[in-house]
Amino acid sequence: MNQSQLTRQPYFRKILLTEKSHRKEKLSSRYTNVSFSFIVFFLQPELYLCTPVKVDYTKSYYIVGFEPNATMATAHHMLLYGCGQPGSESAVWNCGEMAGGSEESGSPCGSRAPSQIIYAWARDAPKLELPEGVGFKVGKESPIQYIVLQVHYAHIDKFKGGGWLDGTTYDDSGIFIHYTTKPLSKQAGVLLLGTAGYIPPMATEHMETLCDIQEDTVIHPFAYRTHTHSLGRMVSGYRIRKDSTGADQWTLLGKRDPLTPQMFYPVESHDPIRKNDRLAARCTMESNRTRITKIGATNEDEMCNFYLMYYVDNGAPLQMKYCFSNGPPLFRWSNPETELNHIPDYDASHL
Length: 351
Known about the structure:
351 residues, Jelly Rolls, eleven-stranded mixed beta sheet, five-stranded antiparallel beta sheet
């Protein structure tokens, strides 16, 4: 089969999964760095790919840092999922909304298995080290038995041409995971706030979400991350607590222009979040498009995400991993059923 014949195929790829590890000393503790990446050759304009690493279930490991090996010129974003089971038995599979239900497609995690996001990267964000004594517990006595890397390729221009045929053009985007086997008392977790909905043409829209903390667990926030596609102008997140008069006290957790490096930044407030507190997030979107823009997976769609990273003392993280609303026009902070007051309307959309 010659090159012209291959380019007429709707989908073609060759993928090699590699895994390697080495040890190094850091802060007088023993850590192991694990990198996993895949080499990709394909002819599809936009794609999500997933690949798993099985965790040794006989030991407990604590992930204490993430070191990305990628550039925004190639990878739009990367996510690390902690899964009870992977979404496919394949070494690599198509795991985005564009998968189309083929035999080689699926979600990052199994449909009935535990699933949570433990790390996210985009726009050339640097590495992340967790605070001293904090780690994501995986392996033994943890719902996380697999770590699944998802890479979103929004453009594949670098793969076009002849290089992919002889293996001279490839991608090794991935993440080095820093972990220790030393038991840590502070377990890390991530809560993802986001929305559905759509953005009208030629308009500024607020995409908002709200959730109640119903579990009797105290969490200590320490980092946040924002994510949108190209229409995002500001993403903000808050903890809401009623005072004795019934007035909502909005405490800023973080806000940022989402088109800057999408790393985890230190939170504005480290105050603990408790049962009956509420968490809220807003994405301010500006569209100059003449069409409706929906929330979706492709680069032509939009996303509204606020990630909150936290730890708990001597306990397990929240069972709640996601907090999503229907978004506009169905859901807004100002809806009567939210019973919100003292909404910081201007501050939530401006630095």
